[in-house]
C-alpha cells in the first residue's frame, strides 16, 4: 500500500528482538508490532507488519530450516508466544504457558519445530510447533536475560541470567543443568554459539587458570559459546569442559569531538554475535554504539578492529542492542539496531556501513516540506527529535539528518521559512518555540517567551504591530506565529528571539473595538499572499482578519467543535476564484470548505457572518487532525483523522477519490508531495511516516465505525418481544455501558498512546467511563447507594461436578437410577451395573466405600482435565490420601499454606519434604520472606538465612540471624561483611560503615565513610576512627580533611579538625604559618583568590614575619620555646612530612603550603639554636618560587624572611660556625639569591625611568661586592658543564632517531655526517669527569644562573650607566669561557658589539 515508510524504532533492552532469515527478510519488534524489512546490500524496503500482541514485543526469531524461512516466533510482555507466517502475515498458533514476562526466545537451528523461551521467573518453556506440545523447566531460581539453542546438539540450551551466571541445560533430561559457567559479575546480555562444533581452533588460547588435563579429547564436539555481559567483558566458553577459555575486555574508544561520559557503564549493553562461516571472529557492541570485530586467533593485545573506523558518522551514536548477519549475493552483511533509533547494515568483508534506516520513537505530530529546498521533509516526532529527510536523494532513499539539541521535549509543530533556506521553526509540548538552521550544526535559537501548554501550530507571516512599526531596515520581513493549548497566539521576532513575544489578541481587541473575552484560539493559517490571517477557535468558529492591523473581515460559524486544522488553497491555481478557498477540520469529523472571495476582495464595514459552506466533505468517523491542498491540482484536498485513514477529496465535485488505510493508529499530520502529484505523506501515532500513491489505493471512502454499523442494524424492523421488568441496578445501564460514542473507533494497543501523551484535545462526547459515572449518579437520584444495589452472588464450583450433573437428567433416567440402586443393594448374584463409574457414577454416593472411591477417582480425572487441581487435592484429603494430595500439589506447583499446615499429619519427613517443595514454589513466585519463614518452621535456620542472602535480602537475613543465632556465630559476621561489600560497591557508604561496625571492623568502617572524599565524610571518618581507637587512621583522615579545607581556604575549620588530635601539633603550626603567609601575600599579586574564613591572629603586624610567627605560636598554640624536648619533637614531626621539589605545574595554594613548611622548620630550628638548619631552610623557602618559575613569590619571600636584605643575611652569617664549610656554602647560595632578585628589581626600576640622561652606580644601589657574589666562576663552570651534557644528550637522541627509518626526521643529515655515537659518548665522559672534580658543596645547593647575570650586567651597563670596567671585563670573560651554547653566545655577542 505504501511506497516508502519510516518504521517505529526497535524495542530497547531486549536480548533478541530482531532476526533475519536466509531470504534477506529482517524482522524486529517495535512497541507491540513486528516490522518486516527486505534487506539488500544497497537499501532496505519495508514489507509490512505483524499485529497481534497487546503489549511490547520482547523477542523475535526466524525458523532456520529449509522450506520454512517464512515461519517465525515472537514473544511479548503479554506473556504469549506467537508463531507467524510472514508470507500471509497471519498468526498460525500461540501459547500462554508463561506466567511471567518473557525475556528471551530462540528457534532451535537443529530441531525443526522447537521454540525455546524463558521468562523473568526463571521458567524455560520448550514448544514444539506442529505437534502443539510444551514442556516447562525450572533449572535455576534466577531471572533469565537471554538464551540460545545449540546448533550442534538438539538438546542443549544455554541460558544467561541476571546475576551473571550461565547455565547449559539438557532439555531431554527435564532441564538438567550440564554446566554452570561462572565468571561474569553482572547480567548476561547476549549468548551466541560458534558455527563449528569442534573446539580445536582456540584450544591453545585458554586462560591460565584453566586445567588443560581434564580429559578433553582431540577436537571434541561441544562448541564454543560466547557471552557478553554488563561487566564490560566478552567471554569464550568451552561447553565440552564447562570452563572459560578466553576473556576479552572492551576497549575504551573515545570518539572524536566527544567527551568522556561518566555514566557510560550504567547504559552499557554488550551484545555479541558469531557470524556463520567465521569460527575465529565474533562481533560485539561497545560503550558508545561502536561495533568491534574480534579476531580470536590473533596474537598481541589488540585483537579487535572497529567497524566503520574510516568515519565517525558510520557508527551508531548510542548503545547497540541486537546484531544479526546473513549472506546475500556472495556478500556477508551485518544488521544492527541501536538506542540511536537507527538500523544499520554493514559489509563484514570491508567492515564499512552500507546503509542506514532511520526509525521513529514517538508519535509523528507534524511534517512539512521546505518551500525552498525541494524535497526536504521535516518530521516533528515525540521522541524529542526533529528529522529532515531528503526524499529526492538518488543514492540513499532514506537520507535523513537528526536534530536534538535544545529540544528536550516532544516536537508537536513545524514550519519552514517561506524564503530563507534551511530556517525551520519548531514547537514542543512543553510550550517551547525555537528556530533551527538545518544547514549548520549550531544549536537552535529558543524564544524567551514560552507557552504554558503544548504548541499546536506554527506559521510564518508578515509582521503586525508592534513589530511592523519602524523602517524597513529595523523590522523583519517575516514574523513567526505560534498557537498553543492555552488558547493564545504569540508573535515572535525571528531577529530577536530573546525579546518578549507579543500576544496578538491585544491588537485584535484594539482594532475591532472588542470588549468581550475572545474565544481560545486553536489554529492559524496565513493566506499565501500574506494579506489575510485565518484563526480557528475552541468554540468551532473561524475568524478571518486583514493584515497588518487584523481588521475582522468575516466570521465562519459552521463547526460546533474545536478547530484542529485550517488551510488556504494554493495561490498558483489557473482559476482565480479558488485562491480564497479555506478548508477547515474539527473534532466533529466533518470538513468544510468556504469560499471567502467576496469577504476578502470586497470587505464591508462590519464583519460578514458566514453560516453556509461552499462544500461539505463527510465520511470520516472521528475527529479531523490535519489537511493539505494538492499543489498540483485545483480543488483537491487530503484529510487525515483519528479514524486511522487519509482521505483524498475532489472538493469542487464534493466527491471522495481514494482512502488510504496503511497506518495502524490514528493519523496526526499530512503533506502532499511538492514534486509528484500522485504522492502523499502521512504520519500518525503508530510511530511511522508513510509515503503512498493516490492512484494505487483500492478504497474510496473511510471505513464505517462500529457504532454506525450498529445504528444501521437497528433501522431494520425487528419483532418485538415481551420483556420482564428488571431492577434498576441490574439492567439500567446495559446499552450505555457497552456502546462507544459516535465518532469514536475502537483502538488496539498499537494506537492507544500508552507511551506518548496525546497532543490534541479529547472528544467532547462522553466515553464509556463517563456513561458509567452518569448511571451511578442517577442511582443516587432515586435514593439508592451503590453499596445497596442488589448483586447476584456467584455460585461456588462443585467439588463433585460429574455426579452433580447427573441429577439434572430427565425424570425417566432419574427413576431408572432408583431401580439400578435397588438391584445393586439387594442383588445376590453378579451386578448389572458398577456404581461410581461411567454412566452410574452418581450411584457411588449411595453404596459402599469402594464405589465412593471409584467415584472420587473419576471426579479427580475430571478436575485434572479442567485444571482444577485444588478440588482434586481436597478429594484425596477426604479419602485420607494426604501424601498423594501433597505430592500432586507439589508436582503441579499448587501448594498452599493450608496444605502445608496439614502435612505434619503424615509425619515429620513428609512435612519437611513438603516445606522444601513449598519453599521452591515460593521462590519462583519471588516470595522469599515467606519461603524463609517456612524453612525456619522446620528448623532449617541456616538454609533460611542463606536463601535471604542469596536474593540480597541482607537486612532481613541479619534480623533473622541476630534473633536466632549466637552473637559469636561466624554466619552473622559474614552477613555483615557481605552486605557491607555490596553497599560499598553501590555507593551506600554510611550503611556499609554501620555493617562494618557491627562486624567489629572499625577500621573498614572509617575507611568506607572516607571513600566519598568530601570534607564532611572525612571529618566523620576521623572522629569514628578516634572513637574506635584507630589513632593512626584518625590522624591521617584528620590531616587529609584539613588539607581539603586549606585548599578551600576555610582556615577556621582546618584548625578545628586538627585541634582534636593531640599528636598533630606540628601540622597545626604549619597550617598557622600557611594562613599567615597567605594573609601577608594577599595584596602582592601572588594570592589571587578571596579570603573569608581566617583567624584574627593571622592579620599582619608591624613586627617581622618570623617574630610574628613565634608570637602566635606562643600565645595561641601554647608553645613553650624553652622546652627544647618539645621543640625537637615538633621539628622531627615536620621533617617527616614529604615536601616535594617545586615545579611550574604545582598550584599556588599547594606551593604556599610547601613554603610554609620550610618557614615553620626554620622557626623551630631558630628556637633550638640550630643556625645552620635555619639558613638551609630559609634557602629552601626562598628558592621554591625560583624553581616554580614564580619570580614574584621569590621576591616577596625575600622581603618577608629577610626584610633588611643583605644585612639580614649577614646577621645569620655571624651566627654560623666559622669552620662549618657546608653552612657557609648555604649562606653563599642564600646571599646570591637575595642579590639576584635585587639585580632584577633595580633593572626594572631603571627601565621605567629610562628617559633620564644620567645614571650612576649609586642609583643602581649595587657595588663590586654585589657583582662578585653573582659572578661566581666555580658555579659558572658547573652550570656550563651541565648545559654541555644536556646538549650532547639531545644530539644523541637525534642521532638515534636518524638511524630509525620508520620514524623519519627532517634536517638530521648534518648531525649524522659530523658526529658519531662513540665520539659523543667520549664527550659525555669528559664532562662527567669535570663535574666529579667540582666540590660537592657547589653541586648540593641551588645558585642563580651566572651567565644570565653576566648578560643582565652588560645590558644594564650599556643602557643605564657606568659599571666598573673590570666588572664588565670579568662578565665578558665568563661569557667567553662558559657561554658555549648557541643561544648564550648570540646574546652576549649582541651586547659586546
Summed over residues and divided by their number, the pLDDT gives a mean of: 82
What's the total count of β strands?
A: 57
Poorly predicted segments: 203-219, 256-265, 716-792, 1251-1261, 1308-1313
Number of helices: 39
* Oligomer state of the chains in this structure: single chain
Shape: extended
How do the strands of the widest beta sheet line up side by side? 42-43-44-45-49
Content-based structural category: alpha+beta
Biggest sheet: strands, sense, closure? 5 strands, mixed
Helix content: 25-40%
- Per DSSP, what share of the residues sits in E-state strands of 2 or more residues? 15-25%
CA gyration radius, whole angstroms = 45 Å
Distance between the terminal alpha carbons, to the nearest Å? 93 Å
Biased composition (Basic residues): 716-728
GO molecular function, one term: mRNA 3'-UTR binding
Region (Disordered): 695-764
Domain Gem-associated protein 5 first beta-propeller: 66-195
Can you offer a commentary on this structure?
With 1393 residues, this protein is of the alpha+beta class. Helices cover 33% and strands 23% of the residues. The strands form 14 sheets. It has a five-stranded mixed beta sheet with strand order 42-43-44-45-49, covered by helices on one side. Helix 17 runs antiparallel to helix 18 and helix 26 (1148-1168) runs antiparallel to helix 27. The protein is extended.
Topology:
Layout: E1 2-6, E2 18-20, E3 25-30, E4 33-39, E5 44-51, E6 57-62, E7 71-76, E8 81-85, E9 90-95, E10 102-107, E11 114-119, E12 124-128, E13 133-137, E14 144-149, E15 156-161, E16 166-170, E17 176-181, E18 188-193, E19 224-229, E20 233-238, E21 243-249, E22 272-273, E23 281-285, E24 291-295, E25 304-306, E26 320-328, E27 331-338, E28 342-347, E29 352-358, E30 364-369, E31 376-381, E32 385-390, E33 400-403, E34 411-416, E35 423-428, E36 433-437, E37 445-446, E38 455-461, E39 479-484, E40 489-492, E41 502-503, H1 504-512, E42 521-526, E43 532-537, E44 542-546, E45 551-556, E46 563-568, E47 581-586, E48 590-595, H2 597-601, E49 608-610, E50 615-618, E51 624-629, E52 636-641, E53 646-650, E54 655-660, E55 667-672, E56 679-684, E57 689-693, H3 706-714, H4 728-731, H5 734-738, H6 768-781, H7 801-805, H8 811-826, H9 849-866, H10 869-879, H11 882-892, H12 897-902, H13 908-924, H14 928-937, H15 941-950, H16 954-964, H17 970-986, H18 989-998, H19 1002-1009, H20 1015-1027, H21 1031-1047, H22 1051-1059, H23 1065-1080, ...
Parallel strand pairs: 45-49
Antiparallel strand pairs: 1-57, 2-3, 3-4, 4-5, 6-7, 7-8, 8-9, 10-11, 11-12, 12-13, 14-15, 15-16, 16-17, 18-19, 19-20, 20-21, 22-23, 23-24, 24-25, 26-27, 27-28, 28-29, 30-31, 31-32, 32-33, 34-35, 35-36, 36-37, 38-39, 39-40, 40-41, 42-43, 43-44, 44-45, 46-47, 47-48, 48-50, 51-52, 52-53, 53-54, ...
GO molecular function: mRNA 3'-UTR binding
GO biological process, one term: spliceosomal snRNP assembly
GO cellular component, one term: SMN complex
Amino acid at each position: 500500500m505504501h511506497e516508502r515508510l519510516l518504521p517505529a524504532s526497535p524495542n530497547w533492552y531486549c536480548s533478541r528482538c530482531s532476526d533475519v532469515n536466509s531470504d534477506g527478510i529482517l524482522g524486529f519488534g517495535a512497541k507491540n508490532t513486528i516490522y518486516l524489512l527486505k534487506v539488500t546490500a544497497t537499501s532496505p524496503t519495508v514489507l509490512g507488519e505483524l499485529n497481534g500482541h497487546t503489549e511490547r514485543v520482547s523477542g523475535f526469531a526466524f525458523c532456520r530450516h529449509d522450506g520454512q524461512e517464512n515461519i517465525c516466533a515472537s514473544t511479548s510482555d503479554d506473556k504469549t508466544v506467537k508463531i507467524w507466517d510472514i508470507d500471509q502475515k497471519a498468526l498460525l498458533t500461540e501459547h500462554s504457558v508463561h506466567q511471567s514476562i518473557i525475556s528471551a526466545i530462540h528457534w532451535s537451528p537443529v530441531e525443526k519445530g522447537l521454540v525455546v523461551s524463558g521468562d523473568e521467573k526463571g521458567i524455560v518453556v520448550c514448544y514444539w510447533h506442529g505437534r502443539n506440545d510444551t514442556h516447562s523447566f525450572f533449572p535455576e531460581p534466577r531471572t533469565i536475560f537471554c538464551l540460545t539453542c545449540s546448533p550442534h546438539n538438539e538438546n542443549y540450551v544455554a541460558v544467561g541470567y541476571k546475576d551473571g551466571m550461565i547455565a547449559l541445560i539438557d532439555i531431554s533430561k527435564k532441564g538438567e543443568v550440564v554446566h554452570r559457567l561462572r565468571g561474569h559479575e553482572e547480567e548476561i546480555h547476549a549468548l551466541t554459539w560458534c558455527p563449528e562444533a569442534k573446539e580445536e581452533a582456540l584450544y591453545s588460547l585458554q586462560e591460565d587458570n584453566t586445567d588443560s588435563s581434564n580429559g578433553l579429547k582431540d577436537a571434541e564436539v561441544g562448541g564454543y559459546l560466547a557471552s557478553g555481559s554488563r561487566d564490560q567483558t566478552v567471554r569464550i566458553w568451552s561447553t565440552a569442559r564447562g570452563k572459560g577459555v578466553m576473556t576479552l575486555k572492551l576497549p575504551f574508544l573515545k570518539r572524536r569531538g566527544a567527551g568522556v561520559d561518566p555514566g557510560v557503564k550504567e547504559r552499557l549493553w554488550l551484545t555479541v554475535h558469531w557470524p556463520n562461516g567465521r569460527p575465529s571472529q565474533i562481533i560485539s557492541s561497545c560503550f558508545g554504539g561502536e561495533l568491534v570485530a574480534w579476531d580470536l586467533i590473533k596474537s598481541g593485545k589488540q585483537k579487535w578492529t572497529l567497524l566503520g573506523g574510516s568515519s565517525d558518522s558510520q557508527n551508531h551514536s548510542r548503545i547497540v542492542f541486537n546484531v544479526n548477519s546473513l549472506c546475500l549475493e556472495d556478500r556477508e552483511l551485518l544488521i544492527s539496531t541501536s538506542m540511536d533509533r537507527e538500523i544499520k547494515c554493514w559489509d563484514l568483508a570491508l567492515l564499512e556501513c552500507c546503509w542506514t534506516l532511520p526509525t521513529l520513537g514517538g508519535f509523528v505530530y507534524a511534517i512539512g516540506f521546505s518551500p525552498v529546498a525541494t524535497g526536504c521533509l521535516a518530521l516533528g516526532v515525540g521522541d524529542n527529535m526533529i528529522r529532515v529527510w531528503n526524499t529526492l536523494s538518488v543514492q540513499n532513499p532514506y537520507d535523513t539528518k537528526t536534530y536534538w539539541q535544545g529540544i528536550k521535549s516532544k516536537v508537536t509543530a513545524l514550519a519552514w521559512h517561506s524564503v530563507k533556506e534551511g530556517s525551520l521553526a519548531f514547537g514542543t509540548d512543553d510550550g517551547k518555540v525555537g528556530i533551527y538552521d538545518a544547514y549548520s550544526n549550531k544549536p537552535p535559537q529558543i524564544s524567551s517567551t514560552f507557552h504554558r501548554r503544548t504548541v499546536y501550530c506554527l506559521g510564518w507571516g508578515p509582521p503586525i504591530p508592534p513589530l511592523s512599526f519602524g523602517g524597513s531596515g529595523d523590522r523583519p520581513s517575516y514574523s513567526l506565529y505560534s498557537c498553543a493549548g492555552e488558547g493564545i497566539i504569540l508573535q515572535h521576532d525571528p531577529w530577536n528571539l530573546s525579546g518578549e513575544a507579543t500576544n496578538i489578541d491585544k491588537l485584535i481587541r484594539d482594532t475591532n473595538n472588542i470588549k468581550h473575552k475572545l474565544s481560545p484560539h486553536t489554529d492559524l493559517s496565513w493566506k499565501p499572499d500574506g494579506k489575510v490571517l485565518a484563526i480557528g477557535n475552541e468554540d468551532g468558529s473561524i475568524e478571518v482578519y486583514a493584515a497588518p492591523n487584523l481588521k475582522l473581515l468575516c466570521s465562519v460559524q459552521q463547526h460546533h467543535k474545536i478547530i484542529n486544522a485550517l488551510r488556504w488553497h494554493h495561490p498558483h491555481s489557473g482559476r482565480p476564484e479558488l485562491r480564497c478557498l479555506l478548508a477547515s477540520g474539527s473534532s466533529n469529523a466533518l470538513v468544510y470548505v468556504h469560499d471567502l472571495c467576496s469577504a476578502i476582495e470586497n470587505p464591508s464595514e462590519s464583519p460578514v457572518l458566514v453560516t453556509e459552506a461552499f462544500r461539505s466533505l463527510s465520511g470520516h468517523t472521528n475527529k479531523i487532525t490535519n489537511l493539505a491542498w494538492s499543489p498540483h491540482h485545483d480543488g483537491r484536498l487530503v484529510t487525515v483523522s483519528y479514524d486511522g485513514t487519509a482521505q483524498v477529496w475532489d472538493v469542487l465535485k464534493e466527491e471522495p477519490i481514494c482512502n488510504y488505510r496503511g497506518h495502524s493508529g490514528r493519523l496526526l499530520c499530512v503533506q502532499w508531495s511538492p514534486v509528484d502529484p500522485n504522492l502523499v505523506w502521512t504520519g500518525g501515532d503508530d510511530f511511522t511516516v508513510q509515503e503512498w500513491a493516490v492512484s494505487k489505493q483500492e478504497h474510496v471512502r473511510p471505513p464505517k465505525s462500529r457504532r454506525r454499523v450498529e445504528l444501521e442494524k437497528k433501522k431494520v424492523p425487528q419483532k418485538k418481544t415481551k420483556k420482564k421488568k428488571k431492577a434498576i441496578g441490574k439492567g439500567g445501564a446495559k446499552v450505555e455501558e457497552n456502546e462507544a460514542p459516535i465518532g469514536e473507533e475502537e483502538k488496539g494497543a498499537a494506537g492507544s498512546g500508552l507511551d506518548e501523551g496525546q497532543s490534541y484535545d479529547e472528544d467532547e462526547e462522553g466515553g464509556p467511563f463517563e456513561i458509567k459515572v452518569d448511571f451511578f449518579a442517577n442511582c443516587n437520584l432515586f435514593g439508592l447507594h451503590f453499596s445497596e444495589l442488589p448483586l447476584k452472588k456467584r455460585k461456588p464450583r462443585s467439588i463433585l461436578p460429574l455426579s452433580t450433573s447427573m441429577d439434572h437428567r430427565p425424570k425417566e433416567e432419574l427413576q431408572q437410577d432408583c431401580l439400578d440402586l435397588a438391584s445393586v443393594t439387594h442383588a445376590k448374584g453378579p451386578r448389572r451395573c458398577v456404581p461410581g463409574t461411567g454412566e452410574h457414577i452418581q450411584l457411588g454416593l449411595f453404596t459402599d466405600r469402594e464405589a465412593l472411591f471409584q467415584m472420587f477417582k473419576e471426579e479427580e480425572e475430571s478436575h485434572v482435565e479442567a485444571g482444577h487441581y485444588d478440588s482434586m487435592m481436597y478429594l484425596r484429603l477426604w479419602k485420607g490420601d494426604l501424601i498423594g494430595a501433597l505430592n500432586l500439589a507439589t508436582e503441579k506447583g499448587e501448594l498452599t499454606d493450608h496444605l502445608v499446615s496439614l502435612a505434619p499429619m503424615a509425619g515429620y519427613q513428609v512435612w519437611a519434604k513438603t516445606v522444601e517443595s513449598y519453599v521452591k514454589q515460593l521462590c519462583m513466585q519471588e516470595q522469599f520472606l515467606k519461603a524463609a519463614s517456612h524453612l525456619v518452621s522446620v528448623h532449617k535456620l541456616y538454609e533460611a538465612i542463606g536463601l535471604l542472602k542469596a536474593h540480597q535480602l541482607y537486612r532481613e537475613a541479619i534480623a533473622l540471624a541476630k534473633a536466632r543465632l549466637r552473637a559469636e556465630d561466624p554466619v552473622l559476621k559474614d552477613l555483615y561483611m557481605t552486605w557491607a561489600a555490596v553497599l560499598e560497591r553501590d555507593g551506600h557508604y554510611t550503611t556499609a560503615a554501620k555493617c562494618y561496625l557491627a562486624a567489629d571492623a572499625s577500621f573498614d568502617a572509617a575507611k568506607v565513610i572516607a571513600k566519598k572524599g568530601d570534607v564532611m565524610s572525612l571529618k566523620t571518618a576521623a572522629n569514628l576512627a578516634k572513637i574506635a581507637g584507630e589513632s593512626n587512621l584518625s590522624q591521617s583522615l584528620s590531616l587529609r580533611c584539613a588539607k581539603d579545607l586549606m585548599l578551600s581556604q576555610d582556615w577556621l575549620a582546618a584548625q578545628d579538625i586538627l585541634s582534636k588530635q593531640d599528636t598533630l601539633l606540628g601540622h597545626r603550626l604549619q597550617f598557622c604559618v600557611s594562613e599567615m603567609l597567605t594573609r601577608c601575600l594577599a595584596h602582592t599579586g601572588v594570592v589571587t583568590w578571596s579570603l573569608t574564613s581566617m583567624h584574627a591572629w593571622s592579620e599582619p603586624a608591624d613586627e617581622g614575619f618570623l617574630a610574628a610567627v613565634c608570637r602566635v605560636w606562643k600565645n595561641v598554640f601554647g608553645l613553650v620555646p624553652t622546652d627544647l624536648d618539645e621543640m625537637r619533637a615538633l621539628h622531627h614531626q615536620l621533617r617527616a612530612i614529604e615536601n616535594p621539589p617545586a615545579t611550574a605545574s604545582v598550584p599556588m595554594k599547594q606551593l604556599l603550603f610547601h613554603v610554609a613548611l620550610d618557614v615553620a622548620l626554620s622557626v623551630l630550628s631558630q628556637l633550638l639554636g640550630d643556625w645552620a638548619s635555619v639558613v638551609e631552610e630559609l634557602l629552601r623557602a626562598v628558592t621554591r618560587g625560583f624553581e616554580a618559575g614564580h619570580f614574584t613569590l621569590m621576591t616577596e619571600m625575600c622581603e618577608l624572611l629577610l626584610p633588611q636584605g643583605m644585612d639580614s643575611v649577614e646577621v645569620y652569617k655571624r651566627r654560623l660556625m666559622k669552620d662549618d664549610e657546608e653552612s657557609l656554602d648555604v649562606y653563599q647560595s642564600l646571599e646570591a639569591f637575595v642579590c639576584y632578585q635585587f639585580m632584577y628589581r633595580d633593572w626594572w626600576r631603571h627601565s621605567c625611568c629610562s628617559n633620564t640622561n644620567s645614571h650612576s652606580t649609586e642609583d643602581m644601589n649595587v657595588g663590586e661586592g654585589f657583582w662578585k657574589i653573582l659572578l661566581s666562576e666555580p658555579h659558572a663552570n658547573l652550570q656550563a658543564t651541565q648545559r654541555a651534557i644536556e646538549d650532547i644528550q639531545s644530539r644523541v637522541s637525534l642521532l638515534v632517531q636518524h638511524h630509525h627509518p620508520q620514524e623519519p626526521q627532517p634536517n638530521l643529515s648534518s648531525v649524522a655526517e659530523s658526529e658519531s655515537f662513540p665520539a659523543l659518548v667520549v664527550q659525555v665522559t669528559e664532562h662527567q669527569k669535570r663535574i666529579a672534580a667540582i666540590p660537592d658543596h657547589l653541586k648540593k645547593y641551588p645558585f642563580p644562573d651566572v651567565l644570565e647575570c653576566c648578560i643582565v650586567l652588560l645590558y644594564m651597563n650599556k643602557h643605564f650607566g657606568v659599571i666598573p670596567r673590570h666588572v664588565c671585563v670579568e662578565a665578558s670573560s665568563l661569557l667567553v669561557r662558559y657561554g658555549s651554547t648557541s643561544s648564550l653566545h648570540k646574546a652576549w655577542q649582541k651586547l659586546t658589539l
